């Protein structure tokens, strides 16, 4: 009778570009465990449980696949989660601790998100996608863009990403203003930015860019009232988290012309469902949550994840079982 292998099994989830194994040296793991890479996304909780049932450890890329309590509780073999980035709000950390599941995190880089924010600002203000499509169709100069110089850049959240976005706005000659629930005038001034009260902030921005963490306080922070207060020529840019903006209110505002356009990298449901209006609206520049999808962040993510899994394999009670 052939013995059944009981080697440690590791799953890598949502590797859309199929690059996980090439972005880091996995030999510290693969010499002691079997690694299976999944390039597709499973949204259904039941299907996810079926997929993960044979695995001892799982690596998740950011928040692509949530791991709530109802999933973790029915995965008795799971003992380790490697999550890219320093924090993952989609993992039930309390449940993981109660169930004895170790969660390892990684470093990261904010530069790629800052860069994508400005790519979306420029693409949306200058209609780059539409003009590129027009050139491919044999057309020429179909829209009039908006110059950013001396316009107001509203930065919602002046943290690690927001401060860097603000500095670039100043370099473009923009009047940079900021507001958030915790921001003070002194803290804004220290970053060379003007603080504005909430109502004035939304009413003043020509470009409003979102850089907050998602929490109960920030969920739907930008709703119908805030969008109605904005200029009809304003652009909304969101590279943070979709639910910070009320998606239904945003679609209504874009359809009615309450605001001129949006550049969006994040959405309530990801991947964005087929047929979703934000996929095809003419005044929306949409990208598939690629703020962190760049070479250096990936090298950090996967390299640190390998280290975290390897250290877990070195831990007490973990050994290759043949």
Automatic annotation (TrEMBL):
PANTHER family: D-ISOMER SPECIFIC 2-HYDROXYACID DEHYDROGENASE FAMILY PROTEIN (AFU_ORTHOLOGUE AFUA_6G10090)
Transmembrane segments: none
InterPro entries according to UniProt: D-2-hydroxyacid_DH, D-isomer_DH_CS, D-isomer_DH_CS1, D-isomer_DH_NAD-bd, NAD(P)-bd_dom_sf
Superkingdom as given in the UniProt entry: Bacteria
CDD domains: PGDH_like_1
Cross-referenced Gene3D superfamilies: NAD(P)-binding Rossmann-like Domain
Oxidoreductase keyword on record: yes
Keyword Oxidoreductase: yes
Assigned keywords, A-Z: NAD, Oxidoreductase
D-isomer specific 2-hydroxyacid dehydrogenase NAD-binding domain mapped to chain residues: 119-291
The family this protein is said to belong to: Belongs to the D-isomer specific 2-hydroxyacid dehydrogenase family.
Pfam families named in the record: 2-Hacid_dh_C
GO MF annotation list: NAD binding; oxidoreductase activity, acting on the CH-OH group of donors, NAD or NADP as acceptor
Name of the molecule in the record: 2-hydroxyacid dehydrogenase
Organism name: Mycolicibacterium arabiense
């Amino acid at each position: 009778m052939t013995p059944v292998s009981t080697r440690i099994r590791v799953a890598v989830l949502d590797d859309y570009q199929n690059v996980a194994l090439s972005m880091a040296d996995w030999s510290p793991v693969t010499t002691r465990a079997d690694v299976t890479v999944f390039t597709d996304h499973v949204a259904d909780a039941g299907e996810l449980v079926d997929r993960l049932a044979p695995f001892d450890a799982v690596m998740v890329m950011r928040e692509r696949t949530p791991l709530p309590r109802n999933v973790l509780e029915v995965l008795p073999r799971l003992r380790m989660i490697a999550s890219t980035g320093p924090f993952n709000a989609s993992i039930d950390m309390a449940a993981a601790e109660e169930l004895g599941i170790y969660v390892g995190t990684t470093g990261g880089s904010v530069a790629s998100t800052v860069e994508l924010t400005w790519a979306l600002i420029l693409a949306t203000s200058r209609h780059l996608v539409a003009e590129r499509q027009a050139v491919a169709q044999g057309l020429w100069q179909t829209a009039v863009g908006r110059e950013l110089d001396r316009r107001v850049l509203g930065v919602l959240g002046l943290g690690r990403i927001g401060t860097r976005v603000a500095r670039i706005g100043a370099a473009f000659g923009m009047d940079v203003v900021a507001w958030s629930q915790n921001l003070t005038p002194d803290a804004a001034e220290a970053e060379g930015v003007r603080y504005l009260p909430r109502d004035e902030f939304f009413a003043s921005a020509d470009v409003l860019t979102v850089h907050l963490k998602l929490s109960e306080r920030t969920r739907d922070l930008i709703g119908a009232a805030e969008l109605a207060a904005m200029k009809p020529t304003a652009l909304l840019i969101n590279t943070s988290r979709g639910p910070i903006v009320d998606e239904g209110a945003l679609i209504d505002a874009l359809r009615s012309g309450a605001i001129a356009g949006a550049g969006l990298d994040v959405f309530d449901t990801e991947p964005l469902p087929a047929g979703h209006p934000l996929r095809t609206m003419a005044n929306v520049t949409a990208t598939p949550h690629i703020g962190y999808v760049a070479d250096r962040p990936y090298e950090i993510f996967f390299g640190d994840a390998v280290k975290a899994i390897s250290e877990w394999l070195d831990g007490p009670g973990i050994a290759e079982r043949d």
